[in-house]
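Appendix B. One record, verbatim.
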Amino acid sequence: MYHVKEAFYTLQGEGAQTGRASVFCRFSGCNLWSGREQDRPAAACRFCDTDFIGTDGQNGGRFDSAEALADHLTALWPVQDGIATPYVVFTGGEPLLQLDEGLIRAMHTRGFEVAVETNGTLPAPTGIDWLCVSPKGENPLAITGGDELKLVHPQADAPPERFTQLDFTHFFLQPMDASATSGITDTMSRSVAYCLANPQWRLSLQTHKITGID
């Protein structure tokens, strides 16, 4: 059984794939925070700005098989030009609590390239085409290589220097959403300054928030 908070067609807003047409599938649940505000102060991740509780979002629901969920997501891809490769992004919450090889195979069978955005604390199933890890605090990483490491910045307990030797193709700093910073108001300037001083890192902006795209 898969529990999906929401699923929708949009443009990828962050990181190396920014601007790419994508079907987003947001799974319910996370291993670092319950999603309830009363639990945030004691959570292993305290700055999340995403609602991942339940299955009541746009195109959300419970799906009893990989085939059923794959059909549901495929129906959200409207482009039939024979040129663009269909692209699905599994996110959360924490998608690796639910994503498995069966669902990845089902999406591949339907012609999709499969991307995942994870906190990296759980092992990844095989077959993922684009793997993005976004570390959260001191939580140890089970995934130390992939396509993209996207670090929300600044995190006092997750300095960029801790990750520079990991086996990722791209390294991004993403300024923390000011609404979740507990008093830190210069996240953009600090991230820009760090990238200028450490050109291994590139700046990632949440363009979906800037443009108003869902």
